[in-house]
Amino acid sequence: MYGKEAVIIIKEEYQLKQFYSGLEALGITCSEKQIHQFLTFYEMLTEKNKVMNLTAITEFQDVIEKHFLCLLYTSDAADDMQCV
């Protein structure tokens, strides 16, 4: 459904340095497809949040830090997790 072009477009739209740094600090590697899935989830979360109060945290960098990276950090699987 999504080709490399879609991933490249999304990567240009978002600043991913913090996300990659956080993943590296946790010892987690993700494929481009999985990064794209995180970004798609972010877009779906913020879109649905417009009509439902799902979270007060909606700024991209805050979602990366406080939702995605914290979730991965607290996951039992984070110790040996390889998303690839």
How is this fold's topology laid out?
Layout: H1 4-13, H2 17-26, H3 32-49, H4 60-74
Helix pairs in contact: 1-3, 2-4
What's the total count of β strands?
0
The string of secondary-structure elements, in order, is HHHH
- Outline the biggest β-sheet: none
* Number of helical segments with 4 or more residues: 4
How much of the sequence is in beta strands? Answer: under 5%
Helix percent band: 55-70%
- The parts where pLDDT drops under 50 for at least 5 residues are 1-8
**Euclidean distance between termini CA atoms:** 19 Å
How much is the radius of gyration in Å? 13 Å
Mean pLDDT: 80
Can you describe this structure?
This protein has 84 residues and is mainly alpha-helical. 63% of the residues lie in helices and 0% in strands. It is built from four helices and no strands. The protein has helices at 4-13, 17-26, 32-49, 60-74. α1 (4-13) packs across α3 (32-49) and α2 (17-26) runs parallel beside α4 (60-74). The longest helix is centred in the middle third of the chain and has 18 residues, at 32-49. The radius of gyration is 13 Å and the shape is globular. The protein starts with a helix and ends in a 10-residue tail after the last helix. Mean pLDDT is 80; it is low at 1-8.
